[in-house]
Amino acid sequence: MKIQSAEFIISAAALNQIPASKLPEIAFIGRSNVGKSSLINSLCNRKSIAKTSSQPGKTRVINFYRINNDIHFVDLPGYGYAKVPDRIKSGWQHLIEGYLKDSKNLKLGLVIVDSRHEPTKLDLAMVNWLDYYGIPYGLILTKSDKVPRHKLQLRVTEVQNKIQKQSEYCKAVLPYSSFNGEGKPELIALIKQAVEKESNTNSSKI
C-alpha cells in the first residue's frame, strides 16, 4: 500500500455530522498533544493536511481525511487535557465513544502513546475500552527519535508484555518517528492488513 493522495473531508462536531460512507476507517486515538496530527501528516507525506497545535485540547471535533479515495483516516479529539471544562470533556467523551462504538466502517484503532513515557491511566482505560468492545487496535509509540535505542526497545517490550500479550485485539506495538520515518513501513503494512482482511471477509460472503 502506497499513499498517493490525501484530502481533508469534514470536521464533525456531533455524531450526526459524521459522513455517510462505506469506506473502511482507521481511527487515530490518543491524549491531547501526543502527536496524532504529526503522525497523519507523516503517513500522508504532507506537511499540514492535519493541523498541528502547541495548545493541548484545541481539537474538539472528529476530522475525516480521504486516503487514496478508498480509506478514511479519522482523527479523534485528544483526551486527558485537565484544563478543559468538565462540560466540554463530557462532550468529547460522548463524541469519541459514540464514534468508536457505533461506526460500522471502523477497521482499526491506532492508540498513540508518547514513547518517552509509560502509557498513562487514560491510555490503559482506552485500550481496556477497545478490548471490551472487540475493536482491533495497534499501539503506536511516537517520538521514537527522542529516545535512546536501548530504552526504546525496553519500552516496546514493556508495552508488549503489559498490553499486547493480555489482549486478543492488540495487533501490534510499533515505535514511530514523524521526524525520521521510523516505523512507517510497518504501520502502513498494519493498516493495509486491516483493510484487506475486511475486503477478503466481504468477498467470502458474496
Topology:
Blueprint: E1 6-12, E2 25-30, H1 36-44, E3 62-67, E4 71-75, H2 86-102, E5 106-114, H3 121-133, E6 137-142, H4 149-162, E7 170-175, H5 184-205
Parallel strand pairs: 2-4, 2-5, 5-6, 6-7
Antiparallel strand pairs: 1-3, 3-4
Structure summarized in a few sentences:
By secondary structure, this protein is an alpha/beta fold. It has a single domain (6-201), classed as Rossmann fold.
List keywords for this structure.
single chain; 206 residues; alpha/beta; Rossmann fold; seven-stranded mixed β-sheet; 5 helices; 7 strands; 36% helix; 22% strand; globular
Describe what you observe in this structure.
This protein is α/β, with parallel strands linked by helices. The chain has a single domain, classed as P-loop containing nucleotide triphosphate hydrolases (Rossmann fold, 3-Layer(aba) Sandwich), CATH 3.40.50.300. The protein has 5 helices and 7 strands; from the N terminus they run E-E-H-E-E-H-E-H-E-H-E-H. The radius of gyration is 16 Å and the shape is globular. The two termini are 24 Å apart. The mean pLDDT is 86.
